[in-house]
Design goal:
Largest sheet: 6 strands, mixed
Distance between the termini: 45 Å
Radius of gyration: 19 Å
């Protein structure tokens, strides 16, 4: 199923096996992506659904490597980097988008580790799946839908996963399942992978130190 505005339904001519779900976003500068994803999930059939942006392409055997039992999960997403295909945004740890909170965590993701050791992210904070591609059970979504009042680029995926974790749900990765993002919002230097991880560790540690200092200063001044 493809979701889009009413005027674009003709894009599926010649593809009778694909349904078109009409969803017109409300006017204004904010892109209410959570409303659109919630509507799409509710319109899809079956107990498990995959939601992805049009920039994502699944590998031919992606679904074969996704476990049958999961709550919220994401495949490993790759993108073209300076040195070849590299991990993009799949599973991460970050708290810099939560309204009313000063960021304190060191941002982390598969770009700093390895997919086989993704559970180590749970030692660093509360993980979240990137909103560009995720899979969810329909009953899980019914219990914990995305927040209709949050727009794109307002940490909508982080906010959703934090609520899901608080409700006792599992945020997971299928490391053997892969997909490709045709558009990359991230930059990387043409360096060997081991050196690149060291550079990212240093950069993210510096960011986290700055966030913690800001948090301590706000507490000292009584703002928190």
């Amino acid at each position: 199923m493809v979701s889009g505005p009413a005027g674009a339904a003709g894009c599926l001519e010649g593809y009778p096996q694909v349904r078109y779900h009409v969803h017109d976003l409300p006017p204004g500068p904010r892109v209410m992506i959570c409303q659109k994803k919630n509507a799409l999930i509710r319109a899809l059939r079956g107990p498990r659904v995959a939601i992805m942006h049009s920039r994502i392409t699944l590998a031919p055997d992606t679904l074969r490597h996704v476990p049958e039992e999961f709550e919220i999960i994401t495949p490993r997403v790759l993108s073209q980097g300076a040195g070849g295909m590299e991990d993009y945004l799949s599973l991460g740890v970050h708290d810099s988008g939560m309204a009313g909170y000063a960021p304190r965590l060191t941002p982390s993701s598969l770009r700093r580790g390895t997919p086989e050791q993704y559970l180590d992210l749970y030692d660093q904070g509360y993980p979240y799946v990137d909103g560009g591609l995720f899979m969810v059970r329909k009953d899980v979504h019914a219990r914990c839908p995305l927040n209709d009042d949050i727009a794109w680029d307002e940490a909508e995926d982080l906010e959703w996963c934090n609520r899901a974790l608080a409700a006792g749900l599992l945020i997971d990765l299928a490391p053997g399942a892969s997909a490709v993002s045709e558009v990359s919002k991230l930059r990387s230097l043409p360096l060997p992978p081991r050196v690149m991880r060291w550079v990212r560790d240093a950069k993210f540690t510096a960011f986290a130190g700055r966030h913690r200092l800001r948090d301590q200063a706000e507490r000292w001044m009584g703002r928190r």
